[in-house]
């Protein structure tokens, strides 16, 4: 298939400059035309790639011809010089895998079956200034930017879609579960600055689930607060507050300074006292030694 | 007379030779010098892990203390080398574990490193000091745990740009409490948060720590605490600096930085809120290297920072700097030697910033010591290139990436042949060149004629015919690495210059016009080359011989065809047969 006029039209100037004839594309066995033209060499593909209306399609296994797709992407570019490339109606860029169909002068280069398809890597098509749609497909490995660098940039650009559990900036939400409660809650650890505050907040949250006894002992000094709370709890064998740390271990709340706790805490669990018996003795001893 | 020097004296003299070239030259003088030299060579550099085997290396150099090995070809950085292609380090580690018990340093680039390899390293070398994994992959943080736990004398752990499967940040906590030898830590590629208190304690107990590159997960409010524990740092990479600015965080940071009297290099700055940048002003005058390539900060803020860095030698920055910022750079930073400008939004059709060829021209005019350039932009002209060439004949590395493939001179619509021609003609010491834009065979004629010191050339979407490739292969006397994608180069130039390939480290050609038949012929003619056909469409002999191969990687080797090829790689054999692994 030949280039159609609408493809060339907006870049006809350039075509004149570049000697269109030389760049005329034809289909054929890869290399076959080349062999005929040994003496003169050949220019492979159209260089008028700045057609404003161009769309692109890059595919590994798919066919060479592009269908018009939305998006004003200037990258119609042939990747495979080896074969005569047909850029189809619009500029198209396809991976070399699609190129060698082995059929002379006919049709599309056969769709081939690469083990690995060229990943179109659609990127934030939202960036498109024309407001036109769709993600743009790209040439593999072009522009030559390391993927790590790309990922870091795209992470930045799509920060709105960041699905990280906790953001580094302003809040630190962790799930709180209570044994026997039908649903969980979430609290923002950053809004508290001590165990006391956390514990009173939790008591408010879970009061409907018979935690009354858990809460009603008022606040004492930061240092011995947790132990005493837990002492009270344990007196009643009711609940113990535990948390899961970064390593996945379940720990008793209150051992470490508050700051460190907020760093390490991934979720909270209000455990039934009976289940927490393994944890309890340590606390009792601690309290005893302090008294 | 050579014979009158006892061996010990020669060995003593040879110890002053650090360059491989010099040592290789010395080895050629006579047999006894060869013998003496090989016993006292301590550092070995292997530019292509498949060019030689571990056994050969060990046989020749029995007392090595430091190895540096490179694996995949450079284009692997841009996903052009399929997964599982190779470059496994394990065979090297396992051989060295048996033969080099005193090995101290392993530096790898673009290799596949497994946790098993890391564990073996950590257990085999009692005096292990330096592990550098640059652009490597295949390991997890568990492997790092082994290193941390077992390498008692570790000085450097550098993971730059590697792809690590990040299972947890717990690995850092494996450094024992009595471990104090750390000098350099680069964990910037890791995602997970490490235990901050473990990090703090580690830093506090390592008084010789000079280089610390944190990862993104360390928030800006924690930096001050770290810096206060390591005021002797010379290189520092922050984590993300995106926390909303608060006076206390800011003033802590100012104070902490002002305590760092030795800081020369800064990087990190992911998503940095511009208001944090002034916290660094106190160190700017000493800074020689600044990596802002993750800082999505606009030009005026960048200029504010850069204008304080009068001793800046190396700047990596995003194109947010714009032409205006580059102008400021050229007036404030007269010592600048290296500039890299990366694209902030490479995939959009329209430019999102006002960065053009003018910025580079201005820097080339204003910075007399500029020798190394990597520049991404959207337009270029021959006039600009000619100006750059005339301004800066001392350029050594020039890598230009015009984002649109085959973009012509935007003023004249001509190819950029004359522009690049001027570059190679004026810059007689040029060692590395990457071309882009619209280019005909002409530019290769210029390159072949003038670029006599060129060692590495990267081409994409360039040229018209085999003549182009022929010019390069026949003209560039110093060429070691040639990497080509999507150029109409085929059989003739390759076969005509087959002998040249033995003088080079490697040749990469993907999406070009080299037929399978030519590859076979090349493999037959040149037994000292591995001619690897990389083709994911299935065995090449299931297609006619005239069909072009997808990818071709040719490299000289004394180790023969490799035994670890995946199913999409074929080595062209001496007897013309297809060799599978």
UniProtKB/TrEMBL annotation, chain A:
<comment type="similarity">
    <text>Belongs to the Aux/IAA family.</text>
</comment>
<dbReference type="InterPro" id="IPR033389">
    <property type="entry name" value="AUX/IAA_dom"/>
</dbReference>
<comment type="subunit">
    <text>Homodimers and heterodimers.</text>
</comment>
<keyword id="KW-0678">Repressor</keyword>
<feature type="region of interest" description="Disordered">
    <location>
        <begin position="105"/>
        <end position="136"/>
    </location>
</feature>
<keyword id="KW-0927">Auxin signaling pathway</keyword>
<dbReference type="InterPro" id="IPR053793">
    <property type="entry name" value="PB1-like"/>
</dbReference>
<keyword id="KW-0805">Transcription regulation</keyword>
<keyword id="KW-0539">Nucleus</keyword>
<comment type="function">
    <text>Aux/IAA proteins are short-lived transcriptional factors that function as repressors of early auxin response genes at low auxin concentrations.</text>
</comment>
<dbReference type="GO" id="GO:0005634">
    <property type="term" value="C:nucleus"/>
</dbReference>
<dbReference type="InterPro" id="IPR003311">
    <property type="entry name" value="AUX_IAA"/>
</dbReference>
<protein>
    <recommendedName>
        <fullName>Auxin-responsive protein</fullName>
    </recommendedName>
</protein>
<dbReference type="Pfam" id="PF02309">
    <property type="entry name" value="AUX_IAA"/>
</dbReference>
<feature type="domain" description="PB1">
    <location>
        <begin position="171"/>
        <end position="273"/>
    </location>
</feature>
<dbReference type="GO" id="GO:0009734">
    <property type="term" value="P:auxin-activated signaling pathway"/>
</dbReference>
<dbReference type="GO" id="GO:0006355">
    <property type="term" value="P:regulation of DNA-templated transcription"/>
</dbReference>
<keyword id="KW-0804">Transcription</keyword>
Automatic annotation (TrEMBL), chain B:
<dbReference type="GO" id="GO:0010011">
    <property type="term" value="F:auxin binding"/>
</dbReference>
<keyword id="KW-0539">Nucleus</keyword>
<dbReference type="InterPro" id="IPR032675">
    <property type="entry name" value="LRR_dom_sf"/>
</dbReference>
<feature type="domain" description="F-box">
    <location>
        <begin position="5"/>
        <end position="46"/>
    </location>
</feature>
<dbReference type="InterPro" id="IPR041101">
    <property type="entry name" value="Transp_inhibit"/>
</dbReference>
<dbReference type="InterPro" id="IPR006553">
    <property type="entry name" value="Leu-rich_rpt_Cys-con_subtyp"/>
</dbReference>
<keyword id="KW-0217">Developmental protein</keyword>
<comment type="pathway">
    <text>Protein modification; protein ubiquitination.</text>
</comment>
<dbReference type="InterPro" id="IPR041567">
    <property type="entry name" value="COI1_F-box"/>
</dbReference>
<dbReference type="GO" id="GO:0009734">
    <property type="term" value="P:auxin-activated signaling pathway"/>
</dbReference>
<keyword id="KW-0927">Auxin signaling pathway</keyword>
<dbReference type="GO" id="GO:0005634">
    <property type="term" value="C:nucleus"/>
</dbReference>
<dbReference type="GO" id="GO:0010152">
    <property type="term" value="P:pollen maturation"/>
</dbReference>
<dbReference type="Pfam" id="PF18791">
    <property type="entry name" value="Transp_inhibit"/>
</dbReference>
<protein>
    <submittedName>
        <fullName>TRANSPORT INHIBITOR RESPONSE 1-like</fullName>
    </submittedName>
</protein>
<dbReference type="InterPro" id="IPR001810">
    <property type="entry name" value="F-box_dom"/>
</dbReference>
<keyword id="KW-0833">Ubl conjugation pathway</keyword>
<dbReference type="Pfam" id="PF18511">
    <property type="entry name" value="F-box_5"/>
</dbReference>
<dbReference type="InterPro" id="IPR036047">
    <property type="entry name" value="F-box-like_dom_sf"/>
</dbReference>
<dbReference type="GO" id="GO:0019005">
    <property type="term" value="C:SCF ubiquitin ligase complex"/>
</dbReference>
<dbReference type="GO" id="GO:0031146">
    <property type="term" value="P:SCF-dependent proteasomal ubiquitin-dependent protein catabolic process"/>
</dbReference>
